[in-house]
Amino acid sequence: MAQDKPATTQPLPVLTPQVPLEITVTKKPPTLASLQDDFDVFSWQTFIALNWPANSDGTPDTNLTIGQAPNDPVVWQSYRESRSIFLPDGATPAPWGEETPPPAVCKNIDAKHLPAGTLRLTQVGKTPNVLDESGEPFKTGPLIDQNGQYTRFSIMTNQAMFTYIVNNKLYSKQGQKLFNADANFPASDATKQQLGSIMIKTAWVKMGGKYDPSKFYTTYALVYDNPDEEPGVKPSCVLEQVGLVGFHIGHKTQDEPQWVWSTFEHVDNVPTKGQAATLAAYNFFDPHCKNCAVNQPPPRPWNPGNRYTKPSQVERVIPITTEAQQLNAAYHQALAAAVPDSVWLNYELVSTQWPTDAQSKTDPTGVPAPSFLANATLESYIQGHVKQTSSSCMACHNNATTTNGNFSDFTYLLQRAQ
């Protein structure tokens, strides 16, 4: 586990299952630095609430606290996986709360006896013909873990976002054509105590080999290979125990129509460029490899069905700030006070991107701070400080459109409509 910087003597953060609807401004007048801290607190509060143990209907179980019942589903696992929304031929998705049948290739697995919260994982990168989830316009490719296996990804939407898509028939090309307007997903409204749209991207590695399940939040997933994503891929489906390595949250609020982008990682994912490696082993970096190309996609052809692929060598390009490290330490203390061996001690906030001028007349991205934000598992190969090249959540997602060219409100999901 990474070493936290000592926290201050201030009271520990309160752990609550309530998703915050807006930041709490702690300094008057606020500064850029104080607001960054306020947004980072907002991110941690959201992370805690979404990973709270859940009841069978997906609501938080208030009889438990985060870190307890570690093998049970958490709140966000009740969200809708994007592939169950955008169906072949633009079919209407099943209602919220209804179980989504597994892919046909998984027909030999008894769906009635799947563990609670079982995920469906097929995404293996962020390039359209490997990961057909998005058309994001940057260099990318699959991420190979230290066992030589493909990292898997999932995108989930909460009920507010799902309902907007369904009510406006944005799940189909025909529906988007009839809608023929910019998308405008509902935003969280603190004055009305109303939760708005939340989108979650997660990254997972298969447990076993070099990965100890006790160090990860784990769940079970139907891990399947989709031949439509890459020539040569054979369809397959396996029920696997997987561990969480990346967790990215987009949350639209009234004051932040460009959304608040919060990104978390497993503490053992990668070292920071220019700093000495402090761990004997990382999730996506081999300290003993002297000639490994760093932050480069694996060579084609890409096939998740291969028994072994040379692991990726990834470093963090932009260091986690001292202030974020101190906040991580404070939340880790709070998590340990609640559950001493909490698995969530193995996760840390990288940073939060937010609009400094949400109503800017010249910058539709709202002048984001920080200018760049990357999750080492989700934007592994586009980290850095180069405009229009390096990862910036708002700059990238501002380019997203529907299938007929209208603005899709900072999400590429609507491009998946058929």
UniProtKB/TrEMBL annotation:
- The lineage's top-level taxon is Bacteria
Q: What is the name listed in the Swiss-Prot or TrEMBL entry for this protein?
A: Cytochrome c family protein
